[in-house]
Design brief:
The chain is an alpha/beta fold. Helix content is 38%, strand content 17%. The protein contains ten helices and nine strands. A six-stranded parallel β-sheet has the order 3-2-1-7-8-9, sandwiched between helices. Helix 6 packs parallel to helix 10. The longest helix has 15 residues. 36% of the residues are buried. About 7% of the residues have low confidence. Bound molecules: zinc ion.
């Protein structure tokens, strides 16, 4: 712990890789795993280009629901700690960049400004004809399906959520930025994401391989844990879910 503090105090360019574990504490559903259903479907059934081609209105209903759910959710102490960390370090000429897999914008709402949303966001649309990306906070979004579509002049194409679906590639421009950040950072924090799934599976070990310290804050150890210099995987027994979640944000506060 003391060693980590010293390391943290010296770091000038910190990359935070965040995942679903950070949003879980805000009660954001992932529609994956046991009990994770919307009607009778899970995310991997509907969050695909094939599902959208087959039935765009059903996929939009799913995303409409997810957007509406987010109106009832708030950033939690982990989001706020990360945002405060950025603000505080900025005053010292130091930089924090958050690379998130989450599409719920809770980091943004907590005040994080240096943010790469590698899986897109629930609150942007992309035109399937001309590719135009637009912010969209309309509630409900569904009337957009009734013949409105893309608002670019003369387009009117069908809009889709600007999120990366199963089987789709990440935006190469964003990946380039991610690479730049990973190559440049002198400390990397992995928060609330198992290092078995892409992209943390690739990003953090890439940083560790340069000899740069990586600190992992997760509920459980993951296959990559042993490759990181610092780790905090103090999860309790599975039944103590609420308590375990609190550990994540409380410990994060301790560090920043
Ligand atoms: Zn268009």
């Amino acid at each position: 712990m003391a060693d980590f503090r010293t390391c943290f105090a010296k770091a000038k360019h910190i990359v935070v890789i965040s995942g679903a574990g950070v949003s879980a504490e805000s009660g954001v559903p992932t529609f994956r795993g046991a009990g994770g259903y919307w009607r009778t479907w899970q995310a991997q059934d509907l969050a695909t280009p094939q599902a959208f081609a087959r039935n765009p209105s059903q996929v939009w209903e799913f995303y409409h629901y997810r957007r509406e759910v987010m109106l009832t959710k708030e950033p939690n102490p982990a989001h706020r700690a990360i945002a405060e960390c950025e603000a505080r370090l900025q005053g010292q000429g130091r930089r924090v960049m958050v690379i998130t897999q989450n599409i719920d914008e809770l980091h943004r709402r907590a005040g994080t400004r240096n943010l790469l949303e590698i899986h897109g966001t629930l609150f942007k649309t992309r035109c399937t004809s001309c590719g135009a990306v637009a912010e969209n906070y309309k509630s409900p979004i569904c009337p957009a399906l009734l013949g409105k579509g893309c608002e670019e002049a003369g387009c009117g194409g069908l809009l889709r959520p600007h999120v990366v679906w199963f089987g789709e590639n990440l935006d190469p421009a964003i990946l380039e930025e991610v690479d730049r950040e990973l190559a440049f950072c002198d400390l990397c924090l992995v928060v609330g994401t198992s290092s078995v799934v892409y992209p943390a599976a690739m990003f953090a070990p890439q940083v560790a391989a340069r000899g740069v310290p990586v600190a992992e804050f997760n509920m459980e150890s993951t296959p990559a844990t042993d490759r990181f210099r610092y780790r905090d995987n103090r999860g309790g027994p599975p039944e103590a879910e609420g308590r375990r979640r609190c550990v994540l944000s409380r410990d994060f506060y301790l560090f920043v």
